[in-house]
Amino acid sequence: MSRFFATGSDSESEESSSADEITPKATGTTFNKPNKEAFTTNLILCCPLRFRFEELTNIIKTIRNAMKIRDMSKCLEEFEQLYRAFLKSKTIVDKEGVPQFYIRLLADLEDYLNQLWEDKEGKKKMNKNNAKALSTLRQKIRKYNKDFETEIASYKEVLNSSTNVISLCRCQDEESESDDDEDSEDWGSDSVDSGGESEDNEGAAASLAVVFLKKYKDGRRKRHKKIEQVEEEVDEDGEAEEGGWEKVKGGVPLVKEKPKMFAKGTEINSAVVIKKLTEILQARGKKGTDRAAQIELLHALSGISNENNLGQGILVKIKFNIIASLYDYNTNLAAFMKPEMWKKCLECIDELLDILFENNNIFIGENIAEDSENLAISDQPFRVRGCILTLVERMDEEFTKIMQNTDPHSQEYVDNLKDEGRVCGIIDRLLQYLESKGSTEEVCRIYLRRIMHTYYKFDYKAHRRSLGLQGETKSEQDQEESEGEDSAIIMDRLCKFIYAKDRTDRIRTCAILCHIYHHALHSRWYQARDLMLMSHLQDNIQHADPPVQILYNRTMVQLGICAFRQGMIKDAHNALLDIQSSGRAKELLGQGLLMRNMQERNAEQEKIEKRRQVPFHMHINLELLECVYLVSAMLLEIPYMAAHEFDARRRMISKQFHHQLRVGERQPLLGPPESMREHVVAASKAMKMGDWRTCHSFIINEKMNSKVWDLFPETQCVREMLVRKIQEESLRTYLFTYSSVYDSISMETLSEMFELELPTVHSIISKMIINEELMASLDQPTQTVVMHRTEPTSLQNMALQLAEKLGGLVENNERVFDLKQGVYGGYFNRGQYLAKIQLFEYLESEGAKKSQY
Amino acid sequence: MCFGPFPLHQTMASRKESAASGSSPLETPVKQIQIDGLVVLKIIKHYQEEGQGSEVVQGVLLGLVVEDSLEITNCFPFPQHTEDDVDFDEVQYQMEMMRSLRHVNIDHLHVGWYQSTYYGSFVSRALLDSQFSYQHAIEESVVLIYDPIKTAQGSLCLKAYRLTPKLMEICKEKDFSPEGLKKACIGFEIMFEEVPIVIKNSHLINVLLLDLQEKSTVADKHELLNLSSSNHLEKSLQLLMDRVDDMNQDIGKYNTYCRNLSKQQQQKQQYLQRRQQENTQRQSRGEPPLPEEDISKMFKPPQAPPRMDTLLIAGQVNNYCQNIKEFTSQNLGKLFMAEALQGHSS
Questions:
Q1: Which parts of the sequence are annotated with region: Disordered (chain A) (predicted)?
Q2: What is the Cα Rg of chain A in Å?
């Protein structure tokens, strides 16, 4: 670097030219001086901002010195300083790009350190401090250099290639440099630098150093000319021989040279382009390949082939590869595409599809061998290796990834979501294409993609149409749209095709689940349920892979919600029970990770789980889900509790609901309910007393409407259904709880109390009597329910419970006795039991007394 | 429900000797308890003012021993305080109170404590511990249990209890393991002994009472004839059931312990047998026998569950049963009476 400046300064100014003379001779100690001078003179003139760079170069200089004398601790110290200085000059760097000299130092330093590291002998000789500093520095620079990977890589490439050139010129050009041997070394490396720089100048990078170099170069041209001449010669040679230009590029992807992809004058035909393409592709996946540059190259290539009308075959091939390398851009599977990449990708696929649609004579397929490809001969059908379906599938996955990685509450998400239309469009087009050309399997796959983009969307148009509201207030455009096919019909067609034709189980399973989901979403409960039952998925879903299981869970939940809307409370409860009882609904539906599991899984697992998450726009509202579950649990549980108040062995229908009730009871101060859960708990309490009006007001009110009920498409129907259910269940609860205080009760009163029609009340009570839940009979002429009073009183119930418990106690006691005696039984003569027997006697006699009155 | 053991002041222990020297320590020092009417009224008043529902009130009894009867002549309530005020010094308060009482020439000897109860549930660990420490320090001390609910029903319910000497022994040794209790031959029936109570009033008060009796109307006594029973019974049953559940759990625990113990015993036996066999074999071969190993180290006996709580629960269950029995027999009597009355009037 400094040497380079030293030579550069010779023609720069008068005073430094003297120093120049010293430079080639005296290496090492003095050669830094002129450099500095050159710098200062330059810098002061140029720009005050650039004083930062001076600082950097100063430090770099010291580092180089330290490197010379192998003073590692000094090196480390200086490196840290350098790092800080670089951070300070960040603003300039951002504007101007990373200065070449900086990159050069980083690269050199790393090489140097690695070299030292390898040198075991030398390491042993080093003193402790130095050795320590060496290892720290090595680690640091490794880490640090990661940020500049591309720059360093390109620098090294340039270094290599120009060395090649130099060595070439050495052997070809007999008259070697005028300098002595020792110097020619320097010279060599010098020219390497200059070569790199000159290329830089031609390239786009306009770093500060380059600005310098330009100036010095003019002066230096004389000396440099020689090399250039050589280079030209080489070029000419290369052109003379066919394809000689390859030699220069020499397998190394020459990033900087992209504008001159083909040597001037080369006749561009398909063979050349294909060759070039394979060459670019060979670099793919190799270390040190600049992926961004590769994409650029491919783009340029496609432009060239387009310009030269090389035929669609090549264009298709190039497009395939562009898309593939776009996908390649992120080596990490978890990382998602950058927006511009994504846009490019979409465009490319669109263009590719355009070409495919326009040209019927292109055959694409994975199984076409490279050799049998036909890209050029246009009178025969083109044959191109590659699979557009895979590309589109990958695109879809990338889209999901982008959605997963965007904050769902930001405008960005909305913007990203707008691409969904394009994705769907592409899938639709591909679907059309494959329908005419693809194999059944491919059609199945693309159908599934289509289904995956359809199943979770509520078809508002169809909904409106079914309600007969079409075209009332809607604009014309909407009307036009609504004339499109119903999503239900599409789903039906696609799914049925898959059921019939698919041979892989997974696609069929997914299709069935999506179909059910779609049915459920559109309140076609019976179809959804029948499909679910017919598919027998419940039996073997645990063997499926996690994404399918998540889909299954989503489907079950949607099914449950659908049942709820239809008023099938029991079915709704059953469908939701599994998901809700685990308390991990969020995780099971793939809508987020649970915090408490964090320590149980490692980072790897977490990544995998994150990849499984469903994008936000497909989420099922968890609060809605919980509310539906709790309300259906309430409608089932409260009458059940009332009916089995004294049953010692009564089972809970819903544990979660009971948990909520308990939480509600534990509250020291009961304010008006705030959250959805509190509303349900308060409603449950009201229902327990048979107070349906309060219950109703708790379940359906402003707050709950905005939180839950308005999320349903047919809100009004659901609310009406709910009111009705609440009335019915409250009536049942009332009868269970208070039947013991009535001798008879008029059905008319009941129907007034619960605002139900007389026949409904009649049917409910009849059902209860038939099911032996209510010990009563109906008196037809007076329209009253006459209680039989056969249920035990609460005291009797308690005594029965106690008896049961005592039975258990005795049994337990006898078991203890067993252990001691080895004989079972005969341990019933203690006082406490006698006392209890007396109690029962009393209770019986009291019952007898009462019946006497 | 109960507060912790009632604190005693150290100086009381010194009184023990003087009390013990008066009567022989072997036989029960108290055969009868004579309570001043004032004490009864004070206890009732205390509960009415501070206790409600299942809340329990406690206080200190003062009096002196005359031959084999304990005369309780005065008492003072123990103030209820929350756990927040840490500054409150209970011992200090008692001492202060007794000193003040002495100043006005009232018996100031500590002879026990009283406690209210809720449906007869007082047999608890806290009561046991506290009564033990009392009886340990002052031999003649008793605990008076006042049942406000029964009293409200028309019959004053005040009972005096003392720990039996056997229980005192066990508590002293703090050995609540199954073996320890077995050795002591203690059952729930003989944990507490009830001491008969006599309420004694001065003649002047008796005269006043007789006078009041004349004046009072019949309606004031109707509580006694209340026929409703289910409420009281339900509550008692509920409590009884809870206790039975506890009992069941304890038995379950004991059961597992027994099983574990016997299993281990078996293992131990097997091990010993094997060892013996090996030793005889070695002897026949002329080798020295295997060294003795500490078997108790190899087979650590399982932790025995303490049985005292079980005993207390049993005692409590017994207590509930007695209560229910009493209540039901009374109520049956009332019912028959009512029936007869009805028949007569119709």
A1: 1-31, 172-203, 224-245
A2: 41
Between chains, do B241 and A849 touch, taking CB under 8 Å as contact? no
**Interchain CB distance below 8 Å, A812 and B335:** no
3-class SS string, A778-814: EECCCCEEEECCCCCCHHHHHHHHHHHHHHHHHHHHH
Q: Which of B189, B251, B328 sits opposite A812 (nearest CB)?
A: B251
* CA proximity to B324, closest of B150, B143, B196, B144: B150
Residue A588 structure tokens = 């099971």
Region A242-250: what's the mean pLDDT?
Answer: 39
| Sheet hosting strand A744-746, strand order edge to edge | A744-746, A784-787, A776-779
Local structure of A19: helix, strand or coil: helix
Residue entry with tokens 């029991």 = A570
Residues in contact with A194: Cβ distance below 8 Å, sequence separation at least 6, in sequence order: A4, A213, A217, A220, A224
Are the beta carbons of A799 and B237 separated by less than 8 Å? Answer: yes
Ramachandran quadrant class, A552 (left: phi over 0; alpha: psi -120 to 50; beta: rest) = alpha
Helices (H) and strands (E) in chain A, counts: 40, 5
Report CA-CA distances (Å) from A635 to A353, A619, A648, A700, A762. Answer: 55, 26, 22, 14, 20
Which of B255, B256, B331 to mutate: most A Cβ within 10 Å?
B255
Residue to test with chain B: of A798, A821, A829, most B Cβ within 10 A: A798
> Does pLDDT of A173 surpass 50?
no
B325–A838 C-beta distance less than 8 A: yes
Q: Which of A801, A835, A853 sits opposite B321 (nearest CB)?
A: A835
pLDDT digits (tens, 9 = 90+) for B55-109: 788 888 888 888 888 888 888 888 876 666 666 677 788 888 888 888 888 877 8
First-residue to last-residue Cα distance in chain B: 49
Does the pLDDT value for residue A328 go beyond 70? yes
Query: Rounded to an integer, what distance in angstroms lies between the CA atom of residue B160 and that of residue B195?
Result: 5
Contact between A747 and A785 under an 8 Å Cβ cutoff? The reply is: yes
Grade residue A632 by pLDDT with cuts at 50, 70 and 90.
Answer: very high
Question: In A, which residues are within 8 Å of B262 by CB distance?
Answer: 819
- Look at A426 and A311; give whichever has higher pLDDT: A426
3-state SS record for A258-289: HHHCCCCCCCCCHHHHHHHHHHHHHCCCCCCC
For residue B317, the chain A residues in CB contact (below 8 A) are 832
CA-based torsion, A9, A15, A17, A22: positive or negative: negative
- From chain B, the residues in CB contact with A836 under 8 A are 321
pTM value surpassing 0.80: no
The three state secondary structure string of B27-48 is CCCCCEEEEEHHHHHHHHHHHH
A849 with B245: Cβ contact below 8 A:
no
pLDDT at A397 exceeding the cut of 60 = yes
Query: Where are the extended beta strands (E) located within A8-86?
Result: none
Q: Per residue in A352-362, pLDDT tens?
A: 888 888 777 77
DSSP letter (8 states) at residue A420 = H
Q: Report residues of chain B scoring pLDDT below 70.
A: 1-28, 53-54, 81-88, 218-224, 293-296, 346
Residue-wise pLDDT for A111-160, tens only, equals 777 777 777 666 666 677 777 777 777 777 777 777 777 777 777 777 66
Chain B residues within an 8 Å CB radius of A849: 332, 335, 339
Among residues A357, A358, A298, the alpha carbon closest in space to that of A324 is found at A298
Helix%, strand%, coil% for chain A, nearest 5? 75, 0, 25
User: Is the pLDDT reported for residue A178 higher than 60?
Assistant: no
Helix (H, G, I), strand (E, B) or coil at B63: strand
Closest chain B C-alpha to A646 CA, distance in angstroms: 12
